[in-house]
Design a protein that fits this description.
Layout (H helix, E strand, L loop, with lengths): L3 H17 L1 H10 L2 H10 L5 H5 L5 H4 L5 H11 L5 H6 L2 H11 L1 E2 L2 E2 L1 H14 L1 H10 L2 H11 E5 L14 E2 L4 E5 L7 H13 L1 H13 L2 H18 L5 H5 L43 H6 L4 H21 L9 H24 L3 H7 L2 H11 L10 H14 L1
Antiparallel strand pairs: 1-2, 3-5, 4-5
Helix pairs in contact: 1-2, 1-3, 6-8, 9-10, 9-12, 10-12, 11-13, 11-14, 12-13, 17-18, 18-19, 18-20
Length: 397
Amino acid sequence: MPERRDLISASRKLLRLAREDRIQAAEVMNALSLDEQVSAVCEAPIAMRPRLLGLAEDPDALIPRMPEAELCFTCKQVGVEDASWMLTHASSEQIVACFDLDGWRGIEPDIPKLDSWLASLAEAGEKTLLRAAQALDAEMVALYLRDHADVELKPAGDEDWQPPAGGQTLEGQFYVIARRKNDDLAPLMKLLRVLFQEDYWLYFRMMQSVRAEMEIDISFWALRWRSGRLEDLGFPSWDRSMAIYGHLRRDEFGELPEVATTEESTEWSLPVWLTDLPAARDSRHSLFRAVSQLDESERSRFFYAFISLANRIAIADQLELGDSETLPDTIEKAAQIASRGLEYIAQERGLSFEEVVRRAEVARLFRVGVNLKPEGVRPALTDFETESEASEEDVGD
């Protein structure tokens, strides 16, 4: 595969051509391999990505290769409601990731955002809408349905029964009634119609869920499934993420293992396009300057450990996972605070920065940095945290 600097150069060339000569830009784009096309798109500024994607002869092959979060960022750049053409080509896994990253607020689904994603899927066509509905957790679809509508079942044998005012039905048995006046149920009814025609079992499950299931149970499982998928994308649970802000006694600040740590060598498929870190010798962060002195295998372990730390910050600080600025912001915070911890330990132990980074976990350096100067660093207690703790107590009971 070409070197990253070559891919950046190709992306910049495409950007210039895309502004000046679309025909020539398309020729250059389609002369690249699929991996090179993905690289060119993801190296480009988000505002230019839709234009580059529009040059591809085979978006059905290109778009599914984009990292999940990068597709989410790109859809949000053009406006989710206008991103249906991208979702048409997206994989089911990418669509689910978009909902996981952008469709939640704390521990609850963000219904206005889900409205936008569902409307875009409906615009993408029935095949895409059906594929998405079957890929999403049934609990997630049920929560969305319950927020917008009540469902009434026609009683068997009751000849005097009258349909509810404003109720809509697809088969004369289940009637869907909007919960809020003037609520546009068109995307929701399109979803239900597609399920009724193509997946009646799921349709029936959704209708009965609104009528019979307890919302607290549905919410619990929807959150649990989402949390598991976020773990796979490198985002630990909230309680595990908050450990990076844990209190340390003053005499614990300078503790350091005698041998280099190897615990943070786990790799995973990154949901973002990030191939390296700014670990240049002249970096303003001592952490990155120290990392530049490590060998290749040590830098690789650090890379994934550091991204894991940045993700834990995003979860603990309750940042928007579907926002393209979140990772750069958390990388900067992680580097700044961990550098503070690195400098303290190096001075206390009389060691070089390089030796400390080799022996200490980067999350430990961050935690020391937090404890050295906690003001304005730790996240404030939020309603989400209170609700999360209460939820855990309920589960324990």
